[in-house]
Amino acid sequence: MFRISAELIFAITHNRILSVKVRQEIFATLQRCRVKI
Fold it and tell me: Is the pTM of this model over 0.85?
């Protein structure tokens, strides 16, 4: 678990394009949760 999170953090900090995709995915997920609630 820690290794995966560390790899994700490394990839995000060293790849702005990836970070943008991750942000969009997180934002979309949050919107879905809000709709469900």
Answer: no
